[in-house]
Structure formats: structure tokens, C-alpha cells
Amino acid sequence: MASHSNQRGIYGWALYDWANSAFATTVMAGFFPVFFKQVWNAGEPAALSTFRLGLTNSLASLIVMLAAPLIGAVADQLGRRKGALLIFTALGVLMTGSLAWIQAGHWELAALAYGLAVIGFSGSNLFYDALLIYIAPLRDVDRISSLGFALGYLGGGLLFSLNLLMTWQPEWFGLADRGEAVRVAFISVAVWWAVFSLPLLLWVHEPGTDTRPSLRTSLVTGWRQLLTTLREVRALPEAFIFLLAYWFYIDGVGTIIRMAVDYGLSLGFPDTSLVTALLITQFVGFPATLVFGRLGGLMGTRNAIYLALGLYMLITLWGAFMSAVWEFYLLAAGVGLVQGGVQALSRSLFARLIPLHQSAELFGFYNMLGKFAAVLGPLLMGTVVLATGSPRVGIVSVLLLFVTGFWLLSRVDIERGEARVARIDVS
């Protein structure tokens, strides 16, 4: 039976996903791409605004990819993962709120604020993931990891529902029009993110270090530690192979998430239907992620990931042939069934394959691969579409990522990896 204090730490940790998922739903997947094209790039060719949005996402992801291992190593040295999470959260909150005041036509400012918000979102997730090991007993890591993702779906979905209602009926909220409603939605995300981050900051306790080196010393030591980690990752062959598998299949997951709306628009579906589909994904994802957390315990974590990847392959194939909006709704529900499960179980499986004292640093590599996949996947699909002229062929190309990740995951010897890590932690 977990202590009351530990239970509070678990719920405080999980609520951070409730907090920052509002950014992923309302801003990243929902309103920002539309507002960026229609308001901040008003009068510009559609292709140009799409390129600018893609470039912004790519640069932000690249910065996180390159910086994540180093900042993770520094946080390990300082023993201040919560402090680092607070810094990135503050950046994300402030930049998200600032979107409400950027005027039409100023795409550069919008891109800068959004890019910095993405860095805040992604950077905070690095330290959020790293704290999992300190609040979750090993036997419960699947369940607690899944709880975080499930609350993220529920919280993000609830605020997104309110934000959508604001844009559909702005007069109910005393707002002038849909544009003002979107700007208020950006502010609501910033407030939501800040308020629901407080339980983690107050209730989650991490063990500190015996000494508190200066920031300069930590940077130097962190850089050296990073170089050492590049060698040590190779000394953890099971974790290394898993990271390769994760790189490929999460690339496919990220591509589906980021390109679904664009793909639906290319098929001629109305934007209102696509937004409704996003909402379906959120609310299906809440119970489904909890179910996958239980499946990890019943059938084994890797087998549950296999199941999720198999469903993703079927979804991708069906998506290539769909022609009606109702099919898009069903596919959105299908994505909701497996998206949170594959993310939560991947995180918990990786946590089992790494030494405790290197959690922030190695989760830096984990997040680095995830953010790089968010760049590589859309690029693959976009290149295929450009070469073939068919978005349907482009979506089929994503299968390559799932198949490769599935095969690499089958090469991971989990039992050997857990035994290796146990010996390292004891020594």
C-alpha cells in the first residue's frame, strides 16, 4: 500500500500531463495552424504559409533534440529536475499567452512565440518523464505512466471542448467573434498549464545531491557526462536497440498526429469535421490509455506495444483508401485507442532499461529521438506526396516507419536489460 505522501506525489506528477496537454490539443493540433494560415499569414499563398509553419516546427524540434541530452545531464548533476521543469514550463506558458496579442500579418512574431512555446513544452516533458522513476515503484510503472497520459487526454480534451464552444458560439462568452475567441483560448491554455503544474511542484519530491555545484561547474561536468553517455548508451545494448525501435515507430505516431488535419483537408473534408475528429481522439484516448496500462501488466509491456503498432498499421492502410468523413471519424477514434497506450508503455519500458542515477540524461536521449521523429516523419510523407502527387501514397509511406520499429522492438532482450540495470544500480 503506497503512503499518502507517495500517492499525492503520483497524482501530482500525473496532473502535469493534464496541465500541458492543453497546449498540445488547443494550440499545437487545433487553433495555431489555422490561425497561422488565416490571420498571421493573411494574403500569403497557402504553400508559403505551410512552409513557414513546417519550418517553425522543425527548428523548434531540432533545438530540443540537440539540447535535451545536455540539459538532462546538467539537471542530473544539480539534482534539480523539478527546477528545470519549472523553467521550461514558464517559457511555454508565457509564450502561449503572448500569442493572444500578436496582430494579423505578423507571422514572424507568431512563429517565434510558437517556436519558443514548443521548446518549453518539449523541454518540460524531458524532466517530467525523468521524474517518473522517483515516484513510481517498478511494479506500478506501467499503470502510473498510463495514468499520466490518460489524464492528459482528459484534461486536454476538456479545455479543448470549451475552447471549441467559444469559437462556435462566441456571443455566449461575451466575445465579439471567432477571432477573439481563439485569442482568449490561447490565454486559457496558458492559465490552465500554469495552475495545474502546481501539484507536481508542491507534491513531487526528488532526491537531491549531497553537494550543490555551481551552474558553470555543472555545465562543464554535464558536457563531459554527455560525451560519456554517448559511450555508455552503447554499453546498454538493450536500451540502445529499444531507442532505435522507438525512433522509428514514434516517428510514425508523430506523423499521424501532425499530418492528420492536413491530410483530411487535402481530401476535401471540411475543417469543422477535422476539429471534431481531434476531439474524438482526445476522449477515446482517456479510457483507452488506462486500459493499455493494464494490458501492459496482463500481456507484457512489449506485447501491448506490438498490439498498438499493429492497430496503427491498419489505421494507416485504411486512411489511404478512405473517401468519407465518417471514416475519418472512425480513424480518429482508432488513433485515440492506441496513441496514448504506445506512448505510455514505451516510456515505462525504457525506464526499466536505464540506470536510476542517469534518468534525466537518458530520458534526454529518449525525448531527443521523439522530437527528431516529429521532423523526419512529416518530411518523409511530404516528399512522397511531392514526388507522386498523391496524398494517399504519402500516407502509405508511413507504414515503413511502423514496420521497422516493430522489427527492432522484437530484437530487444528485456529480461537481460533489466538484470543489467539492476547490477549497475546496486554497484
Automatic annotation (TrEMBL):
Keywords: Membrane, Transmembrane, Transmembrane helix, Transport. It is a multi-pass membrane protein. InterPro entries: Atg22-like, ATG22/LtaA_families, MFS_dom, MFS_trans_sf. It comes from the Bacteria. SUPFAM superfamilies: MFS general substrate transporter. One of its GO terms (cellular component) is endomembrane system. It is found in: Endomembrane system. GO terms for molecular function: transmembrane transporter activity. The chain crosses the membrane at residues 12-35, 55-75, 84-104, 110-135, 147-169, 181-204, 239-261, 273-292, 304-322, 328-350, 362-387, 393-410. The keyword Transcription regulation does not apply. Signal peptide: none annotated. The keyword Lipid metabolism does not apply. Residues 10-415 form the Major facilitator superfamily (MFS) profile domain. It holds the Pfam family ATG22. This is MFS transporter. It comes from Thiohalobacter thiocyanaticus. The lineage of its organism: Bacteria, Pseudomonadati, Pseudomonadota, Gammaproteobacteria, Thiohalobacterales.
